[in-house]
Specification:
The complex is a heterodimer of chains A (374) and B (185). With 374 residues, chain A is of the alpha/beta class. Chain A has helices at residues 8-18, 33-45, 56-67, 79-84, 86-95, 121-125, 143-160, 170-174, 214-234, 254-269, 287-293, 309-318, 337-350, 358-373, and strands at 4-7, 23-26, 49-52, 73-77, 99-105, 136-138, 163-169, 176-179, 238-241, 248-251, 274-279, 281-283, 299-304, 324-328. Classes of the chains: A alpha/beta (374), B alpha/beta (185). The interface between A and B is medium-sized, with 26 and 22 residues.
Chain lengths: 374, 185
């Protein structure tokens, strides 16, 4: 199929439809509203379910119910709306039904603003809803990648009966880029053997997240962990740039990752041997890929549009064997490549202190910018 | 090789659409392209801008500090973005709405009465295409023909009655830019 110039939000919606989406439940919120609007127009026209719920709490519970029928279902929102969905998400995780959720992250906490941010990393990657579970989290950095990852999300959700998040941000949602949409998949006619769709003529099935006896919950949580082990072993995804001979590596995901790519190219043009690792799965996190870099590199720079949430996962992977540095922008501010280039130059020139806290060092370097805002 | 263009003005001046025309032309030319709007809560009358990045390789940052080309359709946009144009770059200013001249010697500045040219073509709202024509004439990234073809191929059906006027506006802007003596550089 030919490439079309597509806005990220609309591209993700159409990709979901073509992946065989049968039901969408949502509530408008900037910067993801175009996604819901596209669903509102397309889904009824295709004879599929679109429902604008009365709130995000309602939307996630509609998603939960529809997911139990084995239908391909999705919701989307932006940060404050995702917060409202956390209880329902936990029920979906506990019931082990597949669901796809898109978070077009904006600046926070609280009402915050509508600018692009990566501040939801911990909420999305490290759980969110209560209880003991791991979602898969995919982080696109372009419109084409967003399209591809939405299609993948449905396949992974069903393969592992799990929640799959697409963690985008306002940039990915609002930008237009040429992208190729997948062909329209037919809506399936066969449903999985756990789906509850009426039990006429067969033994009834029960889907629930209630395990009153803690022994049963323990067995369930152990099973969730077994599934998670399979996911960790098979589903890590990432992109590497200029790593072959790199002495230093920048690690960043989504929009921060592609901004870092510009900075890395500029640094290469100045003769610095620096590369980029861009995690695509934030969960499972690319621990093995970072492990492989440890013997090769002299230092790692983590770049995020938050205060260093993924930084802590990188530090967990590195375990002090290589010095780590951090650069972030906060609250909906987006870094220019020049800022990251300045960090790379400093790192290559002066090296990184072997100990100490990279976030504390960054806060000190960053203080003049905060004062300048004031 | 990468070219960045920033288009800024009041909401309602067609800033975002002008950028999209450029993005379509770049896509049709086989380039990588990213179009990104400022998407604050502003409505008509507020400020709006968009950035278009055209490249022959995977595009990194969707935003740049120093774009190679800038279109400023009003005074606040000129004040904000004139200092940021990359040295050697091109600045197109809608002189109908600004009351000062150029402050940069190291870029090529085109002061074009885009609102008046648009009015002379019969519709004040064509000013975005007048300014875009001027930029394309001065910035060697896409040809005027490529941009005109993009407009023909991608203008939504419901707006097709405006096609000829928009094409004329692109031509008028380009002719003006090529006729004025170079300022700066």
């Amino acid at each position: 199929m030919a490439k079309e110039l597509l806005k990220g939000n609309i591209a993700m919606a159409e990709a979901a439809i073509r992946a065989g989406l049968e039901g969408y439940f949502g509530y408008p919120i900037t910067p993801q509203t175009e996604l819901l609007e596209w669903m509102a127009e397309r889904m009824p026209a295709l004879g599929r379910a679109f429902l604008q719920a009365e709130s995000e709490v309602a939307a996630i519970n509609m998603l939960y119910g529809a997911a139990c029928t084995g239908a391909r279902v999705m919701t989307s929102s932006s940060s404050p709306g995702i917060s409202l969905m956390m209880e329902g998400l936990s029920y979906i995780a506990g019931t082990e039904v597949p669901a796809v959720i898109i978070d077009v992250v904006r600046g926070g906490p609280g009402l915050g603003n509508i600018a692009p941010s990566q501040g939801d990393y911990n909420q999305i990657v490290h759980g969110g809803g209560h209880g003991d579970y791991h979602p898969i989290v995919l982080a696109p950095a372009s419109v084409q990648e967003a399209v591809d990852l939405v299609v993948l999300a449905f396949d992974l959700a069903e393969k592992y009966r799990t929640i799959v998040f697409i963690m985008a941000d306002g940039n990915i949602g609002q930008m237009m880029e040429p992208a190729e949409l997948p062909p329209m998949r037919p809506i399936r006619t066969e449903y999985p053997d756990w789906a509850v769709r009426g039990a006429m003529g067969r033994e009834r099935r029960i889907l629930s997240s209630i395990y009153i006896d803690p022994k049963d919950e323990e067995v369930t949580n152990y099973r969730l962990l077994q599934v998670w082990n399979r996911i960790q072993a098979a589903e890590i995804r990432y992109r590497e740039y200029f790593l072959e001979d790199a002495d230093y590596v920048v690690i960043g995901f989504g929009t921060a990752g592609r901004i870092a790519l510009s900075a890395v190219r500029m640094a290469r043009a100045e003769g610095m041997r620096v590369g980029l690792l861009r995690p695509i799965t934030l969960s499972p996190f690319p621990h093995p890929q970072i492990e492989n870099l440890i013997p090769q590199v002299e230092g790692i720079l983590v770049v995020e549009m938050n205060s260093g949430q993924m930084l802590e996962d990188v530090q967990k992977a590195v375990r002090g064997r290589v010095p780590v540095e951090f650069y972030g922008r906060l609250g909906g501010m987006v870094p220019f490549p020049d800022e990251i280039l300045a960090e790379i130059r400093r790192m290559c020139r002066e090296g990184i202190p072997p100990d100490g806290d990279p976030r504390q060092r960054w806060m000190k370097r960053f203080a003049p910018i905060i004062r300048w805002h004031d | 090789m990468q070219t960045e263009i920033l288009i800024a003005g009041f909401g309602g001046q067609g800033v975002l659409f002008a950028g999209q025309v450029l993005a379509y032309a770049a896509m049709d030319a086989g380039c990588e392209v990213t179009w990104i709007p400022s998407y604050g809560p502003e409505m008509r009358g507020g400020t709006a801008n968009c950035t278009v990045i055209i490249s022959d390789e995977e595009i990194g940052s969707p935003l740049v500090l120093n774009p190679r080309g800038v279109i400023a359709l009003n005074l606040p946009s000129l004040d904000k973005y004139e200092p940021l144009v990359k040295p050697g770059g091109v600045l197109v200013v809608n002189s109908s709405l600004v009351n000062r001249g150029s402050r940069r010697e190291d870029i090529e500045s085109v002061f074009i009465p885009a609102s008046e040219i648009a009015e002379s073509l019969g519709n004040r709202r064509l000013l975005n295409m007048v300014a875009l024509g001027a930029l394309v004439a001065k910035l060697p990234v896409l040809s005027l023909d490529q941009v005109k073809r993009a407009l023909e191929d991608h203008l939504p059906e419901r707006h097709k009655q405006f096609l000829q006027a928009n094409l004329q506006a692109l031509d008028a802007g380009a002719s003006f830019a090529l006729s004025v003596s170079r300022v700066g550089v």
